[in-house]
Structures are given as C-alpha cells and as structure tokens.
Amino acid sequence: MIHSNFLIGGDLLVNRIGMGTMRLCGQPGNFGPYTDWNAGLRLLRFAKDHGINFFDTAHAYGPGWNETLLGEAISDSAPGPVIATKGGVEKTAPDKVFPDGRPSQLRLRCEESLQRLRVKRIDLYQLHRPDPAVAFTESVGALADLRSEGKIRHVGLSNVTLEQLILAMSIVPIASVQNRYNVQEQTDTAVLEHCTLHGIAYLPWGPLAAVPFNKEAPLSTDARLKELAHRHHATGGQLALAWLLHRAPNIIIIPGTTDTGHLKENIECGRLQLSQSDLAEIEAATRM
After folding, report:
1. Which of 37, 58, 65, 130 is the most exposed place for a label (fewest CB within 10 A)?
2. Is there a domain that residue 81 lies in?
3. Are 73 and 44 in contact (CB under 8 A)?
C-alpha cells in the first residue's frame, strides 16, 4: 500500500483509504433511512474488518439516518474507527438542501450527532458548507467552542476557498478540508497544496467525478481510462483513486459504495504503484 497511513490532527492515525457513507441512505437524494438497514450494517462492519478505519458521514445524510446507521454498525468496535461528520447543511427533501451555519444550529446538530454516533466525543467535526447569511468567523468560532468543551476532538472544513481556510486557521487549528477534487477536476489545487504544506488532511469528495442523482461515475466508465487501467490489471475507478493517493501524501480518499465487491475494489486501489509517466497518461486521458 502506498503511503498507507496519515496522522489527522497530529494524533489520529488512519488508513488513507477510507469510506464515505453518504450512499447508505434512502434514494433518490440520499434522503431517509437506507432501505436495507441490515445490509448496510453488514457492509460497514465488512469495511471495518477489512482495514477501513476512517468513515465520513454528515448530519445532512438522511438527514440523521446515516449517522444512526454508522453508530449502530461500529459503536462497539475496539479500538473504534475514526469517524468524521459534518454540520451546517440542512436537507428537508431530496432536492431541498441549504446551509445553516448559525452557532446555535451547529451546536444542536453536534449534540444530535454525538447521540446518533454513540460516542462521547466526535473525532472530526467539519463545517459542511459556509453559510452566506452567517459570518464565516461565527460558524468556525462555534466549532472552536465545541472543541474547547471536549465535544469534538478536531475541527474540519468542507467546500471552502483558500481564503476561508486561512481565515479559519487563525481561529482554531484545522485538521481537514473536504472539497471536490479528482483527476478531471483540479480547480482546488491551491487549497490542496496549502493543506499539504501545513499537514492538513485533504478529503476529496467526488473522487470519481460523480454527479447527484447519477448512478454512473464518469471516471469509472471512461473508455480511455479503462484502456490504461487494463495495463495495470485494474479498473478505471481504481486508477482514478490511485492517482489521488499518488497526488499528495495528505490525501485520504473516501469513495462510497453499497456493495462489498465494489468496496473490495476500492480497497485494492492501494496496491497500484504508478510512475510519473503513468500519472501523466492518466491526466491526459481524462482531460475534458
């Protein structure tokens, strides 16, 4: 496994191949409870038993149902996997999603997450999205307060600009950033490089360039990428994920799935050793 571990916040050692759990919700729109609850429990436990020790979720997934499923699946694990969750986004219907970064709301959602995840302290709590109606410093300050109170261990951010990241770092130590990034979409490179420089975990969402309500991820089905992957005895999706692992040592991938076979495939991407020439070929093949 290349660069198999990363230390989040200086004290949480995790496998760089984690798991995003958003898909384990009702569909469409990741709304409501997962329709096969027991299968979801089995999948999450299978992931834990096969080396996944970092799981990403959010209040908005469900909303709430995803955290409940994850808490039921792994709360009795010893040692427990690292869990990252997010607050600051509300979902009232599959297509009704909006930010709410008020300090009072962030505190409420954090308390609810503690209960649903069945933990006394959340390992990594991330602001899901800046709220244009609330001063960014107020939202980040609320997470800093929750950290001081021992309700969360580390503070993270999601969907932020470089300027917002730098501002947040002046308020509280930032342990992670979760922005959209993949081999085909690299507009967030400045944020990634700042995170790399400062030892901040970078969690790229949309690692296979998936779009909402579309079951097919473009980087899993791209014919050019499949052709390259064949030479490595891999799938196109594995090659795209491996590219991320090679891109920077602080990247932790969190691909999601509802299938054990696909989960195994994701885990196996860590065996791929890519040369600089390979990486350049992958970028050229996926250039839009």
Report:
1. 37
2. yes
3. yes
